[in-house]
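FAQ: What does the model actually see?

It sees only this:
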Amino acid sequence: MENRVLTIDNVRLSFPVYQGQVNVLNNISLHIDRGEIVGVVGESGSGKSVTAMLAMRLLSAGSYHIHSGAITLMGHDMLTLTEKTLRDIRGSKVAMIFQEPMTALNPTRRIGKQMVDVIRQHRPMSLREARARAVELLADMQIADPQSVLKRYPFELSGGMRQRVMIAIAFSCEPDLLIADEPTTALDVTVQRQVLRLLSKRPRRPARRCCLSATIWRWFLRCAIGCTSCTPARSLKAVKPQRCCNIPSIPTLSVC
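And it is asked to produce this:
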């Protein structure tokens, strides 16, 4: 389809372990069209983060085995692309907000250096322009003194501040598809509302899309257009967000 951005079609994935394998995804399918916010919900260990990372081929080579299925991102077969092509696509076409920013940010480099490098990797900007863009992005994330934050290392920031930096980096190159893996885990409720409002508005811009992997129910019901619910090693068919609350066979969903 013309408006189709991401398609995950009947993917079966397992992790090899000693004398066997663990089935993680069993025939999981979902798709995202232009301007949509699609949510993936489920209990811990159900495969939400694995699905998100697999969509960008971020799982370590050799750490998993795909038995069947296909993943297509904006016309690219993600399972066959070379690492060089993947580097060009990540950041500029698709970006990810990771659940744990301390493991995603480089602890030995200042925040400003990391943000400027990402921006200049995908955009023809001078050092001064990229730094100004970084300051603008941090200000959008409700960070009071962005100039000061650019000079700090990740370990000098609180968990919430690091998460906001991660979100700013994901937005930095205006990607066509944003994958957010529980993006407000480390934020207080006030900042959660601000960030989720920003995430819900961005996909409405022309040619913008967003996929959110989350277990934030109230935001989910308000903003998501589609919903795919996960249980360990299994995925249900996509349904409307409101119907997620009425599936009695899934304990996690029945608490809404």
